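User: My collaborator sent over this chain with a note saying "see what the structure looks like." That's all I know about it. Can you take a look?
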Amino acid sequence: MDFLEIAKELLLGIWNEFVYILPFIALGVLLEATIRTLKWHLKIRHALTRFGGLANILATLLGAVSPLCACATLPLVISLLLAGLPLAPAMALLVTSPLMSPAGYTLLNWELGPAWANAVVVCAILFGLFAGYLTMFMRRYGFVEELIFKKTLPEGNFHDPDYPVEELRCDCGKQLSHRVDRCTHSKFLVFLAKFWEGMLKIGKFALLGVVIEVMAVQFLPTEWVSGILEGGGVLPIFALTFATIPMHLQQVTAAAMLYGFVSPEFGDGITLSRGAGIALLVGGPVTALPVMALFIAMFKKRVLALYLAICISGTLLLAFGYRALPFF
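Assistant: Without extra context I'll predict from the sequence alone. Here is the result:
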């Protein structure tokens, strides 16, 4: 098989899989655009600083419906900390938000089935509560809001184009939906703009997952990849958990990657191991190099260490816990 034939086969496989999942990407993005247009997530977010002990639960639930990934959530978390939110619910929100979203649930439900989609929802909620209450416990060891930042951050709005800290400065004002809102004040047009933004964002990560999966099927030994994903032992869980730490692996990317292996139509129709599946679907999204880079720039090293410890231990607990369940 020459180069042109290989390239044609790869492009055809990528196209077929992406077109197949595109309607379900659109459905998930439709839900997210509705939430963003009506600003439900903002209303809940503003209430976080007023709920005391219930803030961990509220932050976890907010994270489970938020359309934000880890990179977008961290600046939000920092702004909430400066507004008076305790570190515990902030950590719960940061951990939960990249694990589940309306688009993520829709894609998971279609690509891997409702059992996997619901399992990841439960894992996201348990992970958020674990992160929140463990961080609350660590307050006695100096993990309090006054001692976590490297330096005092200047007051001001992160959305202000003149905010002095470039790493935290938000450029959302340049987004199409914000420009449409300023020009028209039409909620319907804003909704269409947010839908378009969501399709571009979610679509590119889903496409990336499809490309990785098609390339892996084409060039990697199928037995090797299937062995890791189907493996019921301890090694696949540890391997996937630690391998995904430096990866910027969005949830929709991970789901699209797995779909090509578990789908009888496009892949080998393997049976995804419960432990390995959770390690990839949960461990991948919560850790990303851009997030860790911002942690290093803004927070003291011990806060990054706590975050990584929560991410790794939480992923392992959930993967082994789901693997050990006698049902499902």
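A starting point for your reply to your collaborator: The mean pLDDT is 77.
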